[in-house]
Amino acid sequence: MKNALSVDVEDYFQVTGFEHVVDRARWDEYPVRFQIGLGRILQILDRHDVRATFFFLGWIAERYPEAVADVARRGHEVAIHGYAHRLVHSQRPDEFAEDLGRALAAVRKAYAGPILGYRAPTFSIRADTLWALEIIKDFGFRYDSSILPGRNGIADAQGLPHEIVDGLLEFPLSTVPVFGGRLRVAGGGYLRYEITQQCVHPIGHARRGARHHQRGAVRENRPRHPIDSDAGCRRRACAHDSCFARPARRRSSRPCGMAASGRRRKRSWRTSWAR
Ligand SMILES: [Zn+2]
Prior knowledge:
This protein is an alpha/beta fold. 36% of the residues lie in helices and 14% in strands. It has a single domain, classed as Alpha-Beta Barrel (TIM Barrel), CATH 3.20.20. Helix 1 links the parallel strand 1 (3-9) and strand 2.
């Protein structure tokens, strides 16, 4: 039995959940913190002699090539997470190819070894964007890890690794069958937010998911992010204007993302970042 641990190397201001308040053109203005979480993750992996796959955002690799080199030097796999963290279904095929090529070029400048894997931001390869798989294969990737089987992904997608198009393997996000559907048991969004919405203890549920996969001797695919190991960032997210922009249409003195829109939205931010 093998488990697959992976890390999407991006910063707190680049996640999809903040797209509506953080303009990509202003990414350079935000304090960079990904090295804090990344350093902690690398230390833990070193301590336990575990190797993982690190999907780098091209924007990060371009500005911080030493992070890519450090990950590779420690024996981990270097892979690609796109350049500007754009959802696949928000792009045309030519835009997707341009973003992917730019990311690949940025990572190759920092790392000369093999680059075999790609993961779309927020697992955004869906039934209507399967065209992206041919482009990924044409760039020379050997595998993709962008599909979430079930709700918010592809409802009838296979839950286990398989060859999805000729010459390209798919490593889907780990899920477990629940009430006729599939529930994800991995990923930063799952750990920070989704499971709290379902009133299930995250660790207990994650362990049940792991047991489910391990009983069947199935490879488990469990992604993390540097911000998941940076408690300081989560505190700052609700305390400093410098951490997150306010929506332009509502210039109040309320800090960061909590100023989103209305009472319900405010509670949602608190739920997802206050822990
Ligand atoms: Zn991401």
